[in-house]
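Researcher: Next entry in the queue.
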Amino acid sequence: MSRYFTEDHEWIDVDGDVGTVGISDYAQGQLGDIVFVDVPESGKSLAKGDEAAVVESVKAASDVYSPVSGTVVEGNPALTEEPGLVNTDAETEGWFFKLTLSDVSELDTLMDEAAYEAFVANL
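Model: Structure for this entry, 123 residues:
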């Protein structure tokens, strides 16, 4: 499995042609206590950069963008009941949605973990 990051602080884990998407630990820290998450429904087609989900915290509401193009196969149902999972486990159990990638070459435009750490260090 490979993990990639966007400059908007989304991550995507890729296993075969399925990607699991969430926001980075850095992003959840910037948002503060998360109180609501709206994830996309299965079957929704997304283009790279499309607004895919919404996350609301005590500080602000933010869109979560799709890091790649594809079709949503599952939204994380746990976030409806427990949006704080994003705060406690942003990069594992707090994932937002899974999608089938339609163009794996789009991953080439994303950062690997080392590049993302360097990016965040310069913010």
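Model: The longest strand covers residues 51-57.
Researcher: Noted, moving on.
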